[in-house]
Amino acid sequence: xxxxxxxxxxxxxxxxTAEAWAHAGRKxxxxxxxxxxxxxxxxxxxxxxxxxxxxFEGSVSGGCVEGAVVSEALDVIGxxxxxxxxxxxxxxxxxxxxxxxxxxxxxxxxxVVSGGAA
Length: 118
Fold this sequence. Notes:
Elements: H1 3-23, E1 28-37, E2 47-51, E3 56-58, H2 66-79, E4 83-88, H3 92-97, E5 104-113, E6 116-117
Antiparallel strand pairs: 1-2, 1-5, 2-3, 4-5, 5-6
């Protein structure tokens, strides 16, 4: 199997987890990488699924900004309103959350309802 095939299977597994958690009645948000620039560690289309208890699976940055994304996802779960997050070396937030690896990443976070994203 190639690295690309493994990455695709891992992302499908994260989407399956999101659906399973939502069907089980858990409140869930899905974070998706929608734009990268420079040395962003995860490609466009990478996912992180988060439940209302802060449990998560997947990755949107290889650990650089997951904590900040989980925190924002909890707000999305509470409000039901999606949000766009941006982290990068030109953004002072990036240094606070640890995106010192360089580049820029935009992550769309949306609530998930049973049967798909809201």
